[in-house]
Amino acid sequence: MIGVGKAKQYANVLDKPLSRGRQEVSLSAFAFLFSEMVQYNQTQVDNIAELERRLEDAGYAVGARVLELLCHREKGNKREIRLLHILGFIHSTVWKVLFGKGADSLEKGTEHEDEYMISEKELLVNRFISIPKDMGAFNCGAFVAGIVRGVLENAGFPAVVTAHFVPIEGQQRPRTTILIKFAEEVPDAYMFFSPVVH
Amino acid sequence: MASAAIYSLFIINKSGGLIYYKDYGSAGRTDTNDSLRLASLWHSMHAISQQLSPTPGCAGIDLLQADNFDLHCFQSLTGTKFFAVCETGAQNIEVLLKVIYELYTDFVLKNPFYEMEMPIRCELFDLNLAQVIQKDRVALLGR
Amino acid sequence: MPPPAAPKSGDALFASVERVNAELFTLTYGAIVRQLLTDLEEVEEVNKQLDQMGYNIGTRLVDEFLAKSNVSRCADFKETADVIAKLGFKMFLGVTATVTNWDAEGTSCSFVLEDNPLVDFVELPDTCQGLQYCNVLSGVIRGALEMVSMKTEVTWVRDMLRGDDAYEMRVKLTKQVPEEYPYKDDD
């Protein structure tokens, strides 16, 4: 396995608890890498749905590893078990580590009990990206949706996660909403509803 | 920041192909064919100027002054040219062109849907460029 | 006309650009390598694709480097190598490289990296022993230099993932296209 996958590696990470934030790279380095990843994946697909799925899969791998890393680092190896806690953990901790700030908002879907939305005025991965008109509603945020799915699924909450552009009144650019729809098998006991973090 | 009236902006790739053109009020003097031809001619003239230069290492024309306009040109070391047609005596246009070059590296080159050397169709580049030019206009009015 | 802005130091340059947590970068790169291993299966093919992706990035990234670092045209390959090591690596990855092992002609040298943000958390499994995990970096150098008329070959000679004591890539200048009127009648 490549990536964070071995107990030995965790030991190393734990050995340097200050590693978080210690190292940075330029946003440009990430942006060029991300752009190249999107370009490569475009060569591997026939349609936009497949491109979305592949970016989501790539994100999933990142999400699964981020969860492992953060659980060891921040939580003393306790995984969040309750649904709202894991959502709050994604909205604040995961976002902060990956994107340098908490997400703009976390809301509960108004139409369905089991839907949640994380919204971001300007998703980091979309900072430099203009979607061509012929690609319709495609959103490279599919990668971030994959990250969210990777965190959730590995914490025991399988969900369908998708990224959408949502126009905002008075703004030229739409925001991106990551829509989380939990699978039915999530036990009801985990779903308790209290005010959601905004 | 620059403060001057800019009539039009061209970006041409390293082979002389026009990849971006924006008119800011040259009163419709140039249509698409004209702008393509102008870009290609300027590309050649710029190259000829390097040859004409009596000193070695000349990088080509930076500024062409005419009776009723100035043409400022910035060429990156990779061969992409950014040039602006401006009112005579416009100041700091080279700074403006450098800013536009930076916008190009952000909103064009980091866009996975932009194909190198091809015409630029990137909404974010247009938006950010418009802001920079707008600032430029505001600075002009406040002069 | 104002004098051109002076080139910045590596540290000043890195401090002036927007930065992200290296883990986002490292994990995203890991996800890419993982995708390639699944798609292409052969490690050799993955190595080639990583190099190609690096090359593509290099051809785009060089303009940002030139735009934001204020460096002017380098006099020769030696100066170019120094600029890449001290400013290029720093501006994008926040690390510096050492230039060493010049040949007598001044056309090939080594970049040695002690810190490499690509490889945090990475351990090569037995099934991937031939994998050149950092090939994207050598590709970037090759792509970026080609855009400023220097054709190079870049190869890894030391790799800590394979048990060496540092990361070292060898850069060999194979052809320098002169910066002159490039259009012949037969073009």
Strand order of the largest sheet of chain B: 2-1-5-4-3
Q: What helical percentage do the residues of chain C reach?
A: 40-55%
The percent range for strand residues of chain C is 15-25%
Number of helices of chain C: 5
Structural class of chain B: alpha+beta
Strand content of chain B: 15-25%
* Strand elements of chain B, count: 5
Indicate the mean pLDDT of chain B. Answer: 89
The separation of the N and C termini of chain B measures 13 Å
The geometry of chain C reads as globular
State the shape of chain B.
Answer: globular
- Poorly predicted regions of chain C: 181-187
Q: Please identify, by name, the CATH architecture of chain C.
A: 2-Layer Sandwich
Subunit structure (chain B): Part of the multisubunit transport protein particle (TRAPP) complex.
GO cellular component, one term (chain B): endoplasmic reticulum
Organism (chain B): Zizania palustris (Northern wild rice)
Subcellular location (chain B): Endoplasmic reticulum; Golgi apparatus, cis-Golgi network
Written account of the structure:
Chain C: Homodimer. Chain C: One of its GO terms (cellular component) is Golgi apparatus. Chain C: Keywords: ER-Golgi transport, Golgi apparatus, Transport. Chain C: InterPro entries: Bet3 (IPR016721), TRAPP_component (IPR007194). The complex is a heterotrimer of chains A (198), B (143) and C (187). Chain A is built from five helices and five strands, in the order H-E-H-H-H-E-E-H-E-E. By secondary structure, chain A is an alpha+beta fold. Chain A is globular and about 45 Å long. Mean pLDDT of chain A is 84; it is low at 1-21 and 192-198. Helices cover 38% and strands 20% of the residues of chain B. Chain B has three helices and five strands. The model of chain B has no long low-confidence stretch (mean pLDDT 89). Chain C is an alpha+beta fold and 187 residues long. In chain C, 44% of the residues lie in helices and 17% in strands. Chain C contains five helices and five strands. Chains in contact: A-B, A-C, B-C. Chains A and C meet through helix 1, strand 1, helix 2, helix 3 and helix 4 of A and strand 1, helix 2, helix 3 and helix 4 of C. Strand 1 of chain A pairs antiparallel with strand 1 of chain C, so a sheet runs across the interface.
